[in-house]
Design goal:
By secondary structure, the chain is mostly helical. Helix 3 crosses helix 4 and helix 7 crosses helix 9. The termini are far apart.
Length: 238
Amino acid sequence: MELGFVERSVMRKALRLERWINGEAEPYLILDWLGMDNWTPSQALYLLVGFQPPVGVPEVLNEGDNFELGTRLDGLDMSSTFEDLTEHWTYYRLMMLQDARRALKRLIRMWNSADRPTRENWRFFVKWLASKGFQPDWLQWVESRGFHVDPAESSTKAADDEPSSGVIDPVQPLGHLMALAVEVQKRFWSNNFDPTDRATWTSQDIILEWIRERQPGISGANASAVEKVACPVDRSVK
């Protein structure tokens, strides 16, 4: 039977959500920004963490500012709701926003630690980020489309390396955490699991230990968030 308009719409929405969560959606919105002659520092920092800069954002950001995180560069509108597709959307959204805010604050702190230019070409900001041991998750995608950073400047240094601090690169997409949550569900909440029998529930401590072994360097907050998203039961109910 042919799918109706509503069914096709829901299917397209589900496929888009899956690509967003898995970090597979193309950051196509960055292309408009690459065509600009210069970026302000605040625009650059938003773009480096994968978000569209809000309209009217001041040229310089401070850590104490109220950051507006509206649309990711892959087109995901953070005000959208996907509760009809997954009961975990609230947690997914929270994790994405927390990760982006944490990354944005970190970059603001590094940027404001010295006198900087007020406007520069996008390549300047990518090279600056590379000098800190990071790269934006959209860099390889734009390079595959002909937008190259000068290789003489070693701008893509440490593209596949972990940051020297040992923590997860805060400018990476959330897909790796979502994929980790799926792994947790398959490993601990599938076979021999009965939601009505607490004896079949794997303890949080065991799951968190497995997550830390599986993803060395993951922060405690991210590990807890992954465990919470993957958990299909309410542990608080006795």
